[in-house]
Amino acid sequence: MKKFTHHLFRTFATVVLLMGAVAAQAQVMKAADLEKYAKQRYGSKWVEAAANIASGLTLDKNQSLTYQQVIEAPGKTKEQLYVALNYWATSTFQDKQAITLNDKDAGCIIITSTIKDIAEHIGTINKYAVNITPVIRLDIKEGRVRVTFTVQTYDVLADITGGWLSPSDNKDNRRTYGDSKRKAEDMTNPNLYDEKWEIAQHYPFVEKDSKKRTSSKALVMTHAYSNAIMDKVEEAVKNGVVGNEDDDW
């Protein structure tokens, strides 16, 4: 009985550890952690960093920002790679709508998931909060995976009560700065409105940009997030999500 109890405890402990590891994958990186990651790699001077990054970038034929990497996985079959990446995708992106295509036969997984508040700026009149919704495509073949990460626009929530010179909106003549957030589908706040900033029309791809500082940080953060995604996919391909998904069990 004691031996059985010990075995049961070890099994339970293993399950807890696995659950914890998968939970840690629930989001590739939060915006605050992404900012730390970006600063470590590119520095905290966003305009300068954006210019340096852009010097090595070319927008695709749709004027989108696209990154692509082929990850070699010698000895792994298409099915093994599909299982590993399907596990990674479903454990990482908890939103049920995030995985927009999952075709085992074609060897293709497409993920569309928003990361919020990668950049924020308080201007004279408006306050801007920038989100991105990358399209992440995983193409799977025998012994290799191709990752394509694409962003065409910055999705911006503008708050007309958030600027430094915004009019006060209460009887005490105080500005209550908007928090530039709202629940999905909620259009009831007239002070908040959506904008789409085409990346190709903003700094550093266009020198004269009235939103230069905001678009600079948005580019650096987008670039950093693409690197994080590539690293996570490569880790899943080579070592699995929790590190023990081999056939020896």
Q: Can you characterise this structure?
A:
This protein has 249 residues and is an alpha+beta fold. The protein has one domain: Alpha-D-Glucose-1,6-Bisphosphate, Chain A, domain 4 (2-Layer Sandwich). The chain is built from 5 helices and 9 strands; from the N terminus they run αααβαββββββββα. The strands form 2 sheets. Strands 1-7-6-3-2 form a 5-stranded antiparallel β-sheet, with helices on one face. Strands 4-5-8-9 form a 4-stranded antiparallel β-sheet. α2 crosses α5 and α3 packs across α5. The relative contact order is 0.19.
Kindly summarize this structure in a few lines.
This protein is α+β, with helices and mostly antiparallel strands. The protein contains five helices and nine strands; from the N terminus they run H-H-H-E-H-E-E-E-E-E-E-E-E-H. The chain is elongated.
